Structures are given as structure tokens and as C-alpha cells.
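Q: Start with the shorter request: fold the first protein.
A: Done. Sequence, then structure:
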Amino acid sequence: MRDSKRAQAREQAHERGTYPAPLNAGRSRNMQANRRSDTKPEVVLRSALHRMGLRYRKDFRLDLGEVKVRPDIVFTAKKVAVFVDGCFWHVCPEHGRQPTTNEWYWTPKLRRNMERDQRVNSALEAAGWQVIRLWEHESLTTAVETVVAAVQPDAEHTSETSATGRQ
């Protein structure tokens, strides 16, 4: 029942022109398979951190006044929020690309994603959190080192600034 309502709402959005119709059934399945959490790079990073003995919350909701956010990995005691961002969805300067189909939909959508990321970073930092943003293409070694440096600052010399790796 729920799936039929969702399909009906999607069809109405296609008719109104507010949401692009899929080019084919395969593309539609691919897009529906995209996950909000538990992506492969995120799971690999979490597994490596867990093997090192680090404990964290996954997909833990933080209420920061008007801003509600769910970082991929949260170290509550250390106030460290880790995001593993996909290159397409968060417009990676190295691998992100402008869509060539349905640009009227995707360009503003991706811009809103980037603006939301900035809002989230600002809200977290204003609340005293350290924000770490990692790209999905970063090596596991680099990602682990970045997180460990933030969570265990005594283990290595690290700076006191946010370790976002991007602005």
C-alpha cells in the first residue's frame, strides 16, 4: 500500500514537471538503490574504527536549535561529527560532475546539498562540535588517520581547527 502511494505521488510529480521522470527502468532502480546511510565507504570506515577499539554512534540525530543533523559517525563524548560525502551528491571538486540530463532539476538540487552542508557545518561548530568531512574516494588510511587525530588528539600532534578537509 505504501509503495503504491509513493509511486502515485512520484507519477504526479512527473506530470507537474517538479520531478524528472526516469529515462528507463534500470536508471530508476539505480536511483532508488542509493542509500542515505550505511554506504559502502561509510561501513568500511566504521569497521576500521571499530577494529581499533573506537566506539561511536552511527546516524545519530543531533538537534542544534533549528538545524537537525544526522552525521554518519558521531563521537558524542569528544563532540566529533564525521560525514562521508559522496562525490556526486556533495559536488566533489575532484570527481563531482555536472549532470547532463535533467539539469533543470539536478543543478539546483546539488547546490542545495552544498548549502545544507555549509549550514550544518556552521551549526555544529557553533555548538562546539568538530566537523570532519571525508570524500567517498579518500583512502581508508587517510580517513582513519583524520578521525583518529580528532578523537585521540594525544595520539598525534593535531591542530585545534576543524578537520573538514574542505570549505
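Q: Next, the second protein, separately.
A: Sequence, then structure:
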Amino acid sequence: MEVTYQSLHEQDYKSLNDQLKNKDSLDVLKWAYQTFGDELVYSCSFGAEGMVLIDLISKVKKDAKIVFLDTDFHFKETYELIEQVKKKYPTLTIELKKPSLTPVEQSEIHGDELWKTNPDLCCQLRKLTPLESVLSEHQAWISGLRREQSPTRANTQFINKDQRFQSIKVCPLIHWTEEEIWMYIKLHKLPYNTLHDQNFPSIGCEFCTKPVQPGEDPRSGRWAGSAKTECGLHLGDKQKNN
């Protein structure tokens, strides 16, 4: 079976997920790299799930390509973590993908603090368009989505048809719980973003991420005070193959 976004039909995705349903995350990654090779890229936000995936990926493909969407607005702790990861996994290819507009240029064109006046446009300019550029050069991409994270992710499959980017999205961690993520990090002594120790379960851009109080939705700190819950990277999947 040819595995491309253009060639696969709805039944093909169901068939692939049925084949992988009893596999673990490492098996899913092995299948993905055997299937796509260098045409597979991991878009990593360097959150807790990202650290687990990077470690698993390093066991499967030591020179795998990892892309970080560098919006220019991330916390200093996030940039510090990326440097730690580069040292720990020197054979991985880690690229920081920047938007076409600098923060100054964006302010001149769209006004100051676009993340407040039009957060969807800000995400489009600084995350979605750069990822479109990356994925235009690859057949498939990896994401650290977990079903437990939010209602919008509850039906995520191992293999997803991503209509937003017209790509195949591989999500090896869909069955992991937050407790399992942190058990893996601690067990393998992986570096992680120290903001997680300060009530930041989900970390995005500095201006749009707030700490979360115990008992609150883990993603309630993202775009707090607005109805926005996703940047838009994960709103285009066909995820009906339960």
C-alpha cells in the first residue's frame, strides 16, 4: 500500500490503525520511520510529551529531523531546554523554524500585541504558516498529542489524515497518561522545561501562557481569558476511526 495523504482513503486509515492498535509507541515510531524515512519530521514544542518522544525517536532513528516552531515569543526556559536537548542528543537534526515576519515587522503591519487583538492571526503568522512550509517538504509528521489532554484530542488515532496541512500525522503517545509521561521522564532522567515545576502543564508562547491552579484543566493556561483553546495546528484531522 502506498502511504501518502493523496493515496489513502478513509478505510485505509482504519486499516492502518487496526494493524497498530495493539502496538506500543516504539513500534508505532518504527513503523513510521520504516514507512516514511527522511520524509517524516517531528514538529516538537519541547513540552513533557516532547521529551518522551525525542528519547523514543533517538532509539529508532538517531539522525531524525526535529523542527521547533520558533515564534520569537517563547519563554527563556524553553530555549534553554532546546540547548540541553542538542547536547544530550547530538546526532538529531534540530531546526528552529522562524516566521517570515520579525516581531517588529509584525507590529508595524498588524499593530502591537497582535496576540491580544487577534490571537488566531498571530498563530497563523508565527506557527501555522511556518509549519505549512516545513510540511510541504515532507510526507508525514509526528505529534505528541494524547487523548487525555482535552476533548478536542479524545479521538486522536495513531495515524491521522491531517486535512489542515494535507499530510499524514503520526501520534505515538495517544494512550499515555500524564502520570506515565512523568514516570518516563523521571525514570530516564530526561531534561524538561522547568516551568512545569511552576504550574505550567502546557507551555506555549510567553504572552499567551499562564500557570494553572490545581484541579483546573491542564490547557486552561493557554490563551487564558479567551475562548481559544488551540493554536490551530491540530484542528484539521480526520479522527473518526475509533
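Q: Describe the second briefly.
A: The first strand starts at residue 40 and ends at 43. Residues 119-135 form the longest helix (17 residues).
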